[in-house]
């Protein structure tokens, strides 16, 4: 995570596990601050598609936060 990203997302926690087993499908597991979990099977997706999935719930959380402040 870059310094700019850390400043923009001070509560973000990034945990990575890198496996070299080519037989296993790549996957991304995300737990958002509200507890919602998203599991993405990333093997057949482009980075743009993955980011669209990730950002969909993040935008809702940001809108909710902006509304309450």
């Amino acid at each position: 995570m870059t310094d700019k990203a850390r400043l923009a997302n001070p509560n973000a926690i990034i945990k990575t596990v890198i496996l070299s087993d080519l037989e296993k499908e790549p996957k991304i597991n995300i737990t958002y601050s509200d507890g919602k979990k998203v599991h993405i099977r990333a093997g057949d997706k482009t980075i743009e598609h993955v980011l669209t999935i990730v950002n969909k719930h993040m935008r809702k959380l940001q809108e909710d936060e902006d509304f309450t402040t």
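Residues 20-68 form one domain. The mean pLDDT is 83.
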